[in-house]
């Protein structure tokens, strides 16, 4: 774009911030965005800051400077960086908190980001202190705050070498910075300045720039503890002080080798208990939350030492931190209690891994008190008529409670929790207390031993004889509890029939139907053989699904329960029952196809409703069948449904949601019938070929893979499967090879390479000789850098299996397969090696590198000489930006170690360490 005039810039800024017309605001925003992207924005921002016409223009300029330095510093020649630095320093010297804190922050971030990307600027910390001291201390504090925070910014991609260099510089200047902050906090009585000083110290602690040994003399840490002790501290200062102490404790956890420092910090923090109680008494929930964070961090800091000491028979002095955390769990607000949850998760993990009964017993009292307090927090409001629903904060909290209890329950035993809650139920308590106790029981229901004969039978009997007038929330939790007791019910067959009858009756209440259906599903799945005696009862319930107006989710759960029961019938009866169950849904689907009415999601006019029910039936029928049997009792039901399923695809196939559910339905039908559905292969392959050619929906590729899994051993089906691949592959590859095709279509990448994996595993010779591999490998090479967990994983698994064919062919046609694989690897190996290395260091998250390491290791082992040259060339092509790059020596080291790696763990570790040099 041409350089705009300053008047035009001011007009656009005014329109963005002051014009009430939304269209004009949007237009100004887009135009200013283009200005920011242009090379002219450097000069424009500088002029706006010099003129200081108004706050909005200054903020726009400062934000532009920060964005340009962060993302577009390469637009300026290296020799211009010094001039830019001096300009930013000048602008910052002229700022003051009274004018605009936001402008100050943006300019400070710009200067910090520039310093981090200027390796030539040596001793930047001392230079900044010299430049700003006695001129603008407030700006200096802001710069010293944001600079450590930006070191690990993902936008800057500094690289480990530069990050280490900066962190070392911070450590070497800690003393002077600490002294500056001490003087600032001594000389200033301004609360806002004190807040900034504490935040600055927190930043330095978080990057491990503060020496733990110097904590006793650190004035800012002492001031933070004083703030936390002072009942009258303002909330923002109190929160900042809490952040500072939490950061310090987290740092101590990694450097806890000085018992004097440990005891000093522990005593200082634990002494805050009185302040916590005062905050609770004065209903200062924000401060109570801060104390809960500090006490929890205190517990986590010493947790390992506490566990190790108790394992050795000696209590640790920091054991009291668990008591402090329990005090916070007892707070009236469940959000305060929730802060401590990670501490209990970690405690359960430490205790479980050691598997030492005396250790487990030591923490039993803590967990009993925890569960008792959680039961109180899980109580609903007395004036509520229903349980909290998904999406509500209280529902999410109760879900977390359930997860936490399942993690810690082994410490006290599920039966003990059941007994504890049962005792609560014996008292004369309110409905919400009753429901909460039952909810805790529900959390441990599946862990109850089948031999429990004392409390569970009484609870089940009480549920089954529950009066109709019982509060709705209590009834719903009782139903869910029955579902969780499914494994206990399986061992107590006399309970099954009354439980099923109770749940079938509950289906008639719309507010209880989903809970009842899911409980039926759990019980029928756990008690398959016994449930098969009650198929008629479940079939009647399934037939009445629409009459009962069950939700789609409830209906699907009921169908899955019915299918579990049907699966254990003798085969002749199974075939009849399955056809009946499926035909009920197919008939309604056929009527829908004929009607041609408007589709309303989630109603009877939605084909997905019926497809989901059919899918549920085939998914859970789980038939036992021998290899010698040529027929399958579920095949007649699938054959009956197929003509209608074809009609559904023809009519609704353009709707991606329907197509996905259609493929899912057919997938479960094919999985259920296995190779016995081979007669349907020509029709299935033909339908998928035609549909994918028209719409290229990725679920069709996934279904094609399922067909290959089930039918590859049937000779008559193989030609149809290969023809299907030949027809869909060009369409899929064309979609992915467009601009942004990979990032826009991760599902297609995932499903396409899953399909290719199955061809490699099932019929490799046909696949390798099909002529499609060169294009597939080119696409895989491009997709190596795709930052999408599932899609990238499928690409890597394909490449691994493909290269493995060249190293160790796994079929009888070894020589032919190896020859084909070797030829392809020779042609594509060099580019693939570069793609894997570049993806590792420049694009992918660290957690994704294990699979990349597997592929690279296999590739380098294919032919050592070729791998040596390919890896060397790949490293030479990596970027050499000094702010984020490996040195030549580091590249040489990586090359040497990678060529010697023999296990994937070694290669993954090497890749992760090498990648840190670039980001």
UniProtKB/TrEMBL annotation:
Q: What superkingdom does the record give?
A: Eukaryota
Any Pfam family: TPR_TNPO3_IPO13_4th
Q: Where does it live in the cell?
A: Cytoplasm; Nucleus envelope
* Main localisation: cytoplasm
Q: Where is the Importin N-terminal domain?
A: 28-92
Give GO cellular component annotations, separated by semicolons: cytoplasm; nuclear envelope
Please cite one Gene Ontology biological process associated with this protein: protein import into nucleus
Report the residue ranges that make up the Exportin-1/Importin-beta-like domain in this protein: 103-245
For whether the record's keyword set contains Transport, the answer is: yes
Q: Which residues cross the membrane?
A: none
Ordered alphabetically, the record's keywords are: Acetylation, Cytoplasm, Nucleus, Phosphoprotein, Protein transport, Transport
What GO molecular functions are on record for this protein? small GTPase binding
**Quaternary assembly:** Interacts with (GTP-bound) Ran. Interacts with (phosphorylated) SFRS1 and SFRS2; leading to their nuclear import. Interacts with NUP62. Interacts with RBM4. Interacts with CPSF6, promoting its nuclear import.
Give a short account of what the protein does. Importin, which transports target proteins into the nucleus. Specifically mediates the nuclear import of splicing factor serine/arginine (SR) proteins, such as RBM4, SFRS1 and SFRS2, by recognizing phosphorylated SR domains. Also mediates the nuclear import of serine/arginine (SR) protein CPSF6, independently of CPSF6 phosphorylation. The nuclear import process is regulated by the small GTPase Ran that partitions between cytoplasm and nucleus in the predominantly GDP- and GTP-bound form, respectively.
- What PANTHER family does the annotation carry? TRANSPORTIN 3 AND IMPORTIN 13, TRANSPORTIN-3
Q: What is this protein called?
A: Transportin-3
* Species per Swiss-Prot/TrEMBL record: Arctia plantaginis
């Amino acid at each position: 774009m041409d350089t705009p005039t300053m008047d035009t810039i001011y007009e656009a800024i005014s329109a963005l911030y002051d014009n009430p017309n939304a269209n004009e605001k949007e237009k100004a925003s887009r135009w200013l965005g283009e200005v920011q992207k242009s090379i002219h924005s450097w000069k424009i921002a500088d002029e706006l800051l010099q003129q200081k016409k108004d706050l909005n223009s200054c903020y726009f300029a400062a934000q532009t400077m920060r964005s340009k330095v962060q993302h577009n510093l390469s637009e300026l020649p290296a020799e211009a960086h010094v001039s830019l630095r001096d300009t930013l320093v000048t602008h910052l010297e002229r700022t003051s908190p009274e004018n605009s804190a936001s402008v100050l922050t943006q300019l400070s971030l710009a200067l910090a980001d520039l310093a981090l990307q200027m390796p030539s600027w040596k001793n930047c910390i001392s230079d900044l202190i010299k430049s700003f001291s006695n001129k603008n201390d407030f700006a200096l504090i802001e710069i010293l705050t944001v600079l450590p925070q930006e070191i690990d910014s993902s936008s800057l991609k500094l690289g480990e070498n530069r990050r280490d260099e900066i962190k070392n510089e911070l450590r070497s200047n800690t003393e002077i910075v600490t002294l500056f902050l001490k003087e600032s906090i001594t000389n200033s009585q301004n609360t806002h300045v004190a807040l900034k000083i504490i935040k600055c110290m927190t930043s330095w602690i978080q990057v491990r720039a503060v020496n733990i040994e110097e904590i006793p003399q650190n004035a800012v840490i002492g001031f933070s503890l004083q703030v936390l002790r002072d009942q009258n501290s303002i909330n923002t200062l109190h929160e900042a002080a809490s952040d500072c102490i939490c950061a310090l404790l987290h740092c101590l956890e990694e450097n806890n080798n000085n018992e004097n420092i440990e005891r000093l910090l522990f005593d200082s923090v634990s002494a805050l208990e009185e302040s916590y109680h005062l905050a609770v008494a004065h209903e200062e929930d924000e401060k109570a939350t801060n104390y809960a964070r500090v006490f929890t961090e205190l517990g986590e800091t010493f947790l390992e030492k506490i566990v190790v000491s108790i394992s050795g028979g000696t209590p640790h002095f920091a054991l009291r931190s668990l008591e402090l955390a329990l005090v916070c769990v007892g707070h009236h607000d469940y959000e305060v209690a929730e802060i401590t949850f990670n501490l209990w998760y970690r405690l359960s993990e430490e205790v479980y891994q050691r598997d030492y009964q005396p250790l487990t017993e030591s923490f039993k009292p803590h967990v009993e008190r925890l569960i008792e307090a959680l039961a109180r927090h899980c109580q609903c409001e007395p004036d509520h008529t229903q349980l909290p629903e998904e999406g509500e904060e209280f529902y999410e909290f109760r879900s977390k409670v359930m997860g936490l209890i399942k993690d810690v329950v082994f410490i006290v035993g599920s039966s003990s929790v059941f007994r504890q809650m049962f005792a609560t139920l014996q008292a004369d308590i309110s409905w919400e207390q009753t429901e909460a106790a039952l909810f805790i029981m529900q959390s441990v229901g599946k862990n109850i031993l089948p031999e429990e004969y004392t409390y569970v039978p009484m609870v089940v009997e009480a549920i089954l004889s529950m009066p109709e007038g019982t509060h709705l929330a209590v009834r719903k939790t009782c139903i869910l509890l029955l579902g969780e007791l499914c494994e206990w019910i399986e061992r107590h067959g006399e309970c099954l029939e009354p439980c099923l009858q109770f749940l079938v009756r509950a289906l008639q209440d719309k507010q209880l139907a989903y809970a009842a259906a899911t409980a039926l599903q759990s019980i029928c799945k756990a008690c398959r053989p016994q449930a098969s005696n009650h198929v008629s009862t479940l079939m009647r319930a399934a037939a009445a699904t629409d009459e009962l107006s069950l939700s789609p989710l409830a209906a699907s759960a009921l169908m899955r329960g019915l299918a579990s029961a049907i699966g254990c019938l003798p085969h002749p009866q199974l075939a009849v029952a399955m056809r009946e169950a499926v035909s009920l849904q197919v008939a309604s689907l056929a009527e829908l196809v004929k009607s041609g009415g408007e589709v309303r999601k989630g109603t009877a006019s939605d084909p997905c409703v019926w497809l989901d029910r059919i899918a549920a039936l085939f998914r859970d029928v789980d038939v036992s069948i021998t290899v010698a049997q040529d027929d399958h009792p579920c095949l007649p039901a699938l054959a009956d449904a197929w003509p209608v399923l074809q009609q559904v695809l023809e009519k609704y196939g353009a709707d991606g949601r329907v197509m996905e559910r259609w493929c899912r339905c057919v997938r479960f039908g094919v999985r259920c019938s296995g190779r016995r559905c081979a007669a349907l292969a020509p029709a299935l392959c033909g339908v998928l070929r035609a549909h994918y050619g028209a719409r290229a929906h990725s679920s069709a590729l996934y279904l094609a893979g399922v067909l290959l899994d089930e039918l590859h051993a049937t000779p008559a089906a193989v030609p149809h499967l290969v023809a299907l691949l030949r027809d869909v592959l060009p369409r899929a590859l064309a979609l992915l090879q467009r601009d942004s095709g990979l990032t826009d279509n991760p599902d297609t990448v995932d499903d396409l390479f899953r399909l290719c994996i199955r061809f490699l595993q099932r019929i490799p010779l046909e696949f390798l000789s099909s002529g499609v591999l060169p294009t597939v490998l080119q696409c895989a090479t491009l997709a190596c850098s795709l930052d999408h967990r599932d899609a990238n994983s499928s690409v890597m698994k394909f490449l691994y299996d493909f290269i493995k064919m060249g190293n160790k062919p796994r079929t009888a046609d070894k020589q032919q397969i190896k020859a084909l694989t070797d030829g392809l690897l020779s042609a594509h190996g060099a580019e693939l090696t570069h793609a894997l290395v570049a993806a590792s260091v420049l694009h992918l998250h660290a957690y994704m590198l294990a699979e990349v390491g597997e592929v690279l290791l296999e590739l380098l082992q294919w032919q050592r000489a070729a791998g040596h040259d390919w890896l060397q060339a790949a490293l030479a092509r990596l970027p050499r930006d000094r702010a984020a790059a490996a040195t030549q020596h580091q590249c040489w080291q990586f090359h040497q170690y990678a060529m010697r790696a023999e296990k994937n763990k070694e290669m993954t570790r090497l890749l992760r360490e090498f990648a840190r040099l670039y980001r």
